[in-house]
Amino acid sequence: MRNVYIFNPGPGVLPEPVLESTSKAVLNFAGTGMSIMEVSHRSKQFDALLVETVDLLKKVMEIPDNYKILFLQGGASLQFAMIPMNLLAAGGVADYIDTGYWASRAIKEAKKIGKVNIAASTKDFNYTRIPAPDEIKLTKDAVYCHITSNNTIYGTQWQTFPNTGKVPLVADMSSDIISRKVDVGKFGIIYAGAQKNMGPAGVTTVIIREDLVDKAPENTPTLLTYKPHVENNSCYNTCPVMAIFVVHEVLKWVVDMGGVAAIEKTNDKKAALIYSILDKSTFYKGTVEKGSRSKMNIPFRLPTEDLENEFLSQAGKKGFIGLKGHRSVGGIRASMYNALPLEAAQKLADFMVEFEKSKA
Ligand code: PMP
């Protein structure tokens, strides 16, 4: 049992049973006598695991049959480039909705490849909210529309996804994938670095609708083209074997917990514990508009920076890890990914109340 509560923004907390089964596989994977770090990505044992991982993800996210699932390297950041290289390089305009730091990075990459229209931005509001539907100016025949479903740094999350009609909706779900039920059929591509809700750093999940797989121009470098990855079931080259193993274990854990619907309920409870304090208190101040609040990352401020530092120092002594806000915004941020137990959120809520009282 751990004696710390991990509120890290990413890499994030992993379920304890996953750490246990991974530690066993580090010594002996599937009875092979080899470590998961030593086994071939083309061995029958690993191949079986890879097939099962895809099936588990399909089951957990209820992914329709006309989607392909990839486990790639390069992080979500490589997808910022790969998506326009595959879909936009041949021409047309892509819509991007700018909701913060990571969305801006995606935009920066896309602009290097093709034409980008910023369909909406909440930059002028310091990214403290998601744009309202009437603020979003979509291009009629855009090649795709890109959003960031959860903004890890600012703590905002799309509650209702924009309706882009026939234009494929592409979503960076790095910080909220499998944390809530999502209708995958509404998306063209969903991608996520695994290191928050799905596994360790080093593997990125890409869920791509079949008709979008083969759109890259001929001169696109092979490894940056979706098609060879799809044709080779993520093993065009050596895939991130160990990281995929951990994703497999996390997905099994999700199933054991009752699936995404059950996990979502717990996430709702965890978030409500902290937001109810922010709503009652004049000491703590949430930084996000209510209608845009994230269930994954909850940023808040205290009356002064000195008090914030004291809060972090006392929290650290009590075993709360990772509560410091992102360096670009400061303050406090509680990241509460799937594997953070309800008990940890309760302990943090208790500590917040106690700390406020001690300063009254
Ligand atoms: N998108 C979002 C929403 C993120 O939170 C992050 C990382 N924190 C990234 C993209 C970048 O991911 P990576 O480091 O895997 O490239």
Number of domains: 2
Summed over residues and divided by their number, the pLDDT gives a mean of 98
The CATH superfamily of the largest domain is identified as Type I PLP-dependent aspartate aminotransferase-like (Major domain)
What fraction of residues sit in β-strands? 15-25%
Provide a descriptive summary of the structure in words.
This protein is an alpha/beta fold and 360 residues long. It folds into 2 domains: 16-256, Type I PLP-dependent aspartate aminotransferase-like (Major domain) (Aspartate Aminotransferase, domain 2, 3-Layer(aba) Sandwich); 258-358, Aspartate Aminotransferase, domain 1. The chain is 36% helix and 16% strand. The protein is built from 9 helices and 14 strands. The protein has helices at 16-27, 44-61, 75-87, 101-113, 226-231, 241-256, 259-280, 305-317, 342-358; strands at residues 5-6, 67-72, 93-98, 115-121, 144-148, 150-151, 156-157, 169-172, 189-193, 204-209, 285-286, 297-301, 320-321, 332-335. It has a 7-stranded mixed β-sheet with strand order 2-10-9-8-5-3-4, sandwiched between helices. Helix 1 (16-27) runs antiparallel to helix 6 and helix 2 (44-61) crosses helix 6 (241-256). The longest helix has 22 residues, at 259-280. The protein is globular and about 65 Å long. The two termini are 35 Å apart. The model has no long low-confidence stretch (mean pLDDT 98). Bound molecules: 4'-deoxy-4'-aminopyridoxal-5'-phosphate (PMP).
